């Protein structure tokens, strides 16, 4: 017999599965950034060259060297494509994992709230004592989270700001 409780309609996402999905989301975003950089650069340069915008812009900029203009345009287009990539990457991730996306979003929000609650105060940092992983970006497992908590506590002890566990 099936259990028809409200919580059983969605699969329960474990923390290890959450970290694996988080890693997958980051990789999809990076892949889409690379594709976006190449795509925007290709179509942008093709449009510039075919329509003669390179010569027009070079003349408008007071005789700016066309090779320099195309080089800077290439870098600019690659940068724009790289920044646009994660937008499409998140959409690809949401479509590919739409079965667990609500649970993933809930866990992601809870995880970031834990990070905010336990992270160090960066005002006590210096070049000799930088704060450890402020946003928790390097956390990839439950053991990594525990290591992150120890690093935060060690930083607070080193700066003399440890007050014990924070309460909600």
UniProtKB/TrEMBL annotation:
Bilayer topology: Multi-pass membrane protein
Domain of life: Eukaryota
One GO cellular component, as annotated: PAM complex, Tim23 associated import motor
Residue ranges crossing the lipid bilayer per the database entry: 28-49, 69-88
Cell location: Mitochondrion inner membrane
Keyword terms of this UniProt record: Membrane, Mitochondrion, Mitochondrion inner membrane, Protein transport, Transit peptide, Translocation, Transmembrane, Transmembrane helix, Transport
GO annotation terms (biological process): protein import into mitochondrial matrix
Family matches, as InterPro entries: Pam17
Subunit structure as annotated in this protein's UniProt entry: Component of the PAM complex.
Function summary: Component of the PAM complex, a complex required for the translocation of transit peptide-containing proteins from the inner membrane into the mitochondrial matrix in an ATP-dependent manner.
Family: Belongs to the PAM17 family.
Protein name: Presequence translocated-associated motor subunit PAM17
Annotated source species: Cochliobolus heterostrophus (strain C5 / ATCC 48332 / race O)
């Amino acid at each position: 017999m099936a259990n028809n409780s409200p919580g059983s309609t969605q699969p329960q996402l474990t923390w290890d599965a959450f970290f694996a999905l988080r890693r997958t989301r980051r990789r999809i975003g990076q892949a889409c950034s690379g594709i976006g950089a190449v795509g925007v650069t290709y179509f942008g340069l093709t449009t510039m060259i075919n329509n003669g915008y390179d010569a027009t812009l070079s003349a408008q900029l007071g005789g700016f060297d066309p090779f320099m203009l195309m080089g800077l345009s290439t870098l600019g287009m690659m940068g724009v494509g790289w920044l646009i990539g994660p937008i499409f990457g998140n959409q690809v991730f949401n479509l590919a994992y739409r079965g667990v996306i609500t649970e993933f979003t809930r866990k992601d929000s809870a995880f970031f709230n834990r990070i905010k609650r336990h992270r160090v105060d960066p005002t006590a940092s210096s070049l000799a004592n930088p704060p450890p992983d402020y946003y928790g970006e390097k956390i990839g497992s439950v053991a990594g989270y525990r290591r992150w908590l120890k690093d935060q506590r060690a930083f607070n002890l080193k700066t003399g700001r440890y007050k014990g566990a924070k309460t909600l």
